[in-house]
């Protein structure tokens, strides 16, 4: 079995320096620490988790709360992609991720109890009911926590520029000649409010009337409901010529409704998604969509949480990072047919 003494001898440093480097503690230069960790890895060294926790007062475990209304959080490609980026950044610093739940064996526990039971150093929260009393309890307990698309007092958060995302979509549709632009949003939430703000604001800025019948409320990733609402829009006396979907995945329902109505995308009606999911680039016609930078969102979440864990920003207001979005021009938006 490889010991700290073996690594110290190989690197020509003290055992204390090896211990500090492996446990990501101050007192060792960045280059030396990197060399020590690389040497330890090449020698097959694995630290004892229990001993490491005693030395550092940390377990290097990060809890993950990722669960949507249908308990299918891990099927949500956008959030899973954000989590993957977050995971990579945290693992670089020696942390492991643990999915959180409300049970340990046969016993039902709260999120806070699970956090304390597993001695978690911090928690990553996304794609969940942010008003859940147990989540509010966890936020109030003072455990380092970072959230995606929602902000709790005293905790850092990361979110896309949802206002600008929808503004970009509306502006793009208008540049193509559309003035009858409908919006099917996700369920009421902070993100949804921001997107509607962008939709309404951009329409007014362009001098386009905000028509109540052109706004529908679906749910994120809900293909069935989005299909039904799209069908409703298509039966209006004056149907829209362009529809903004809640997200790329839910937009599949909208595309199906358009096909079943005997219409074509984009010849008869244009469609714009939101998320920029990679697999949507392989459908035909290729979806025009608002791209969310999942890599940057995940990295930013990791950076903020690490600073909280290290107490580097303990006495400063919690940061909220807004990540820019971009519009991906696909093949689902063309000028509307002349009446």
Task: Pick out its properties.
six-stranded parallel beta sheet, 12 helices, 339 residues, Rossmann fold, elongated, six-stranded mixed beta sheet, 3 domains, 41% helix, alpha/beta, single chain
Structure write-up:
By secondary structure, the chain is of the alpha/beta class. It has three domains: 1-31 and 46-57, no CATH class; 61-158 and 294-323, Response regulator (Rossmann fold); 162-292, Response regulator (Rossmann fold), CATH 3.40.50.2300. 41% of the residues lie in helices and 17% in strands. It is built from twelve helices and 14 strands. The protein has helices spanning 4-11, 15-22, 30-42, 49-56, 77-92, 111-117, 133-140, 162-175, 190-205, 223-234, 248-260, 294-309, and strands at residues 61-66, 96-99, 103-104, 107-108, 122-126, 145-148, 157-160, 181-185, 215-217, 242-244, 270-275, 288-292, 320-323, 325-328. The strands form three sheets. A six-stranded parallel β-sheet has the order 2-1-5-6-7-13, with helices on one face. Strands 9-8-10-11-12-14 form a six-stranded mixed β-sheet, sandwiched between helices. A two-stranded antiparallel ribbon has the order 3-4. The radius of gyration is 24 Å and the shape is elongated. It starts with a helix and ends in an 11-residue tail after the last strand. 40% of the residues are buried. The mean pLDDT is 89.
